[in-house]
Amino acid sequence: MVLQSNIQDGVDVLTDGEPVEKTLSIIELISSGGLAGQVIIAILFVMLIFAIYIYFERLFAIKAASQIDSNFMNQIKDHVSNGKIDSAQMLCAQVNSPVSRLINKGITRIGKPLEDINTAIENAGRLEIYGLEKNVSILATISGVAPMIGFLGTVVGMILAIFELANAGGTIQMDVLASGLYTAMTTTVAGLIVGIVAYMFYNHLVVKTDKVVYQMEANSLEFLDHLNEPI
């Protein structure tokens, strides 16, 4: 019985001596970074929300601009061939897309030299592209600025850590350095995350916009080729 009691006491000692696993939530990690880290994280969070808003707003706008009836151009060519210019313009007004607006601009120039019609369509196309790319450049800016803001937090955190170390009287204590190190690491990670997300959003919107631009060019060339056909 004595031996069993001693063994049990040894187990209790080992159990009590086991390290307790510590967990750290994101909120605790941010709050441990001090005021400087919290301010930088807040700025990056606002930039992330803004990037998400721009992405989905532009994505829906570009998606709506790319939707057009596959029979649209055939109807336009039939109206133009039959001299029904008003009907062709009404059809363009009903569709209300970048392609229809370009074709409508060309229809209003029918009767003038083909070069003038082409110039009018190109000018209208530049305005349409500008509208499609509205605020997309902000995503590119966020993708470049966010990591730099995160690195700024890293520098601030390291300065705070060195300052605390210099005032520690020659003794190195991790709890003294913790606040500065938390600021350095959390801001770096947050800046990189925001930058990567914004960069992915930007590239996806560029690809989507290029598809709409190609659609505009293809339909414009088809319209000009139809006008150039001998009667």
TrEMBL record:
The keyword Coiled coil does not apply. InterPro entries: ExbB/TolQ_transport (IPR050790), MotA_ExbB_proton_chnl (IPR002898). Belongs to the exbB/tolQ family. GO terms for cellular component: plasma membrane. This is MotA/TolQ/ExbB proton channel family protein. Residues 96-217 form the MotA/TolQ/ExbB proton channel domain. Keywords: Cell membrane, Membrane, Protein transport, Transmembrane, Transmembrane helix, Transport. It comes from the Bacteria. GO terms for biological process: protein import. It is found in: Cell membrane; Membrane. It is a multi-pass membrane protein. The keyword Transmembrane applies. The chain crosses the membrane at residues 35-56, 136-162, 182-202. It comes from Psychroserpens burtonensis.
